[in-house]
Specification:
The complex is a heterodimer.
Chain A lengths: L2 E4 L3 E4 L3 E6 L13 H8 L8 E8 L4 E8 L5 E6 L6
Antiparallel strand pairs in A: 1-2, 3-4, 4-5, 5-6
Chain B lengths: L6 H9 L17 E7 L3 H14 L4 E4 L15 E2 L6 H21 L10 E5 L2 H16 L5 E4 H7 L15 E5 L3 E2 L2 H14 L3 E3 L4 E7 L2 E7 L2 E10 L5 H8 L6 E10 L9 E4 L4 E5 L5 E11 L7 H14 L8 E11 L6 E4 L5 E5 L9 H14 L13 H4 L5 H4 L5
Parallel strand pairs in B: 1-2, 1-11, 2-8, 4-13, 11-18
Antiparallel strand pairs in B: 3-7, 4-6, 5-6, 9-10, 10-11, 12-15, 12-16, 13-14, 14-15, 17-18
The complex binds flavin-adenine dinucleotide (FAD) and zinc ion.
The site of flavin-adenine dinucleotide (FAD) has 38 residues of chain B, from helix 2, strand 12 and strand 16.
Chain lengths: 88, 417
């Protein structure tokens, strides 16, 4: 069993966490005209990196979203940080 | 050298002490140039090479594999073959595959041990029975065989399942596909490799693709650990590593890679002669010819390239099996492993141009692409030979994510593998 560090609660059982998506995606401004390609990129395309990967996770018990950087091969957690306005 | 397999050649070789069998395939050094290079020597890559040569006469072909043939998911899967999907596009695709599997051993002169022992998807409530009826109807309309079984009929087929009064998930019935079953995974890889080799395809193992040769925005070949190989077009069938190749080739994919685990128990006496899957627990099992139970379940919940499973999912899968068949509680596990599968947003595969000219992709099979190896190879070969889709692969073009024509089998048939 792996433990992940929630920035708010500390080390907790991996079953309490849920992967929400890759970090760094910005939702297109839907008040303006956006192309299908841009919308598709936002909705579906991803890097799916082998190695270090910056991701958004949610700790389901405290319901906080945060950024976790992990190595997707060794599964080692490299860092976690709270999600603030200029984080992701 | 004996190349053809038959009762007669077995007898002849037996009398000669089995000294005359030819190797299954050659191991040539790569040539400078091919008409088509296939990246990935799993089932899909090897089948593609075979059908390119057999159906389209394209024989100047190389399959480039970084490890050994079938060392990816093809040699790691639980070998369930079926076409019990919901949407007509899926039924057309997967049933083509089941039909090709039905004739495969004869076609490639190699016994892939396709055992059509049937496959049951259990239903655990009246509401699930209604959805099961809907799936059965959809399959029949799509031309696949399907039957709705009631609880008694399920019990007759598999008395070992949990029919106790206190069952957490009581069995109300099942979707049964009699043409479904299991095959031998290694044999599928080796059989296609041998058949492709005999038609002139070069199979190159221990050769990793490290980049694409792009000239003027068009792919002209691949860079490998054994040097540059030029090619008219390149087909990529690398399953869980598809995104890594996409990064090298300058195109994007909508895939996440996850570990999927499997388990084999010690050999026991004949226990169940069909395949049983419970969508409620996500677990399924069948019994191999050696007597071991082959067990699978849902994906690990953490995206991974680690090729080993995590313990929470292990517990979930095994607890599900005990729920399904409590008599198995004390049976020991012999082996346990994981493969890295490429999961797409709609749980359907991607077959089509990659976005970079000259590179074509066959990926996104996720947890269920063993059953699809013959069809995936057949359709991908058609695409590579003609530069245009076969009617059956067209709906699976990656362009569907732009147009919104998703084929959502996770929602459609509720089956994640
Ligand atoms: C535990 C488990 C159970 C499963 N159960 C079932 C089942 O019951 N039924 C079913 O239908 N499906 C099942 N699947 C899914 C099925 O195994 C896969 O969808 C299918 O095998 C994919 O075949 P493939 O040829 O595309 O990929 P693979 O067999 O994975 O082949 C891809 C190959 O590409 C090679 N490669 C990667 N990168 C490079 C590179 N840079 N250069 C050269 N080569 C490279 C890899 O080494 C690999 O051999 C299961 C999968 C797993 C892991
Ligand atoms: Zn928390």
């Amino acid at each position: 069993m792996q433990q992940f560090p929630c920035p708010f609660c500390g080390l907790r059982d991996e079953r309490e966490f849920h992967f929400a998506g890759e970090a760094g995606k910005t939702r297109p401004d839907t008040t303006k005209e956006i192309s299908d390609a841009d919308w598709t990129t936002y909705l579906y395309y991803c890097t799916n990196a082998k190695g270090p990967s910056r991701e958004i996770w949610v700790h389901t018990t405290c319901q906080e979203y945060f950024v976790m950087t992990r190595d997707t091969v060794s599964m080692e957690v490299l860092s976690t940080e709270a999600l603030n306005e200029d984080a992701a | 050298m004996t190349r053809h397999y038959s009762a007669l050649s077995l007898l002849r070789e037996g009398l000669k002490g089995h000294t005359g069998w030819a190797p299954l395939w050659r191991s040539p050094a790569p040539k400078d140039t091919y008409d088509v290079v296939i990246v990935g020597g799993g089932g899909h890559g090897l089948a593609t090479a075979y059908y390119l040569a057999k159906n389209h006469g394209v024989t100047n072909v190389a399959v480039i594999e970084k490890g050994w043939l079938g060392g990816g998911n093809t040699g790691r899967n639980t070998t369930v073959i079926r076409s019990n999907y919901f949407y007509p596009e899926s039924t057309a695709l997967y049933d083509l595959s089941v039909r090709l599997y039905e004739g495969l051993s004869r076609d490639i002169n190699y016994n892939v041990m396709f055992s059509q022992r049937g496959m049951m998807v259990l239903a655990h409530s009246d509401a699930e029975m209604e959805l099961a009826a809907r799936t059965v109807n959809a399959m029949q309309l799509g031309g696949a065989d399907a039957e709705l079984l009631d609880g008694k009929e399920v019990q007759k087929k598999a008395p070992v399942l949990n029919f106790r009064d206190d069952a957490r998930y009581p069995i109300h019935g099942a979707i049964f596909q009699g043409r479904g079953g299991t095959g031998r995974h290694d044999a599928v890889a080796w059989g296609y490799a041998r058949a492709a080799d005999r038609l002139g395809v070069d199979i190159i193992q221990n050769c990793e693709v490290t980049g694409f040769l792009i000239e003027g925005g068009v792919c002209k070949g691949v860079e490998t650990s054994q040097g540059l190989i030029r090619s008219g077009s390149v087909g990529v069938a690398t399953a869980g590593h598809s995104s890594v190749l996409a990064e090298m080739g300058g195109y994007k994919l909508p895939l996440h890679s996850y570990a999927l685990q499997a388990f084999v128990t010690e050999a026991i006496k004949p226990f169940m002669d069909t395949v049983a899957f419970s969508p409620m627990t996500g677990s399924y099992f069948s019994q191999s010819d050696k007597g071991g139970l082959v067990i699978g379940g849902g994906l690990d919940r953490v995206p991974s390239y680690g090729q080993r499973g995590n313990t929470p999912t292990q517990e979930t899968v095994l607890a599900g099996i005990i729920d399904m068949a409590p008599a198995l509680a004390k049976v020991k596990l012999l082996r346990h492993w994981a493969g890295i599968v490429d999961v797409s947003p709609d749980s359907s595969p991607l077959i089509g141009p990659s976005g970079t000219e000259g590179i074509y992709i066959n990926c996104g099979w996720g947890t269920g692409g063993f059953k699809a190896i013959p069809a995936g190879g057949y359709l991908f070969a058609h695409l590579l030979a003609n530069g245009a889709h076969h009617d059956i692969s067209r709906p699976f073009d990656p362009g569907r994510f732009n147009t919104g024509h998703l084929i959502d089998e996770a929602a459609g048939s509720g089956i994640a593998h």
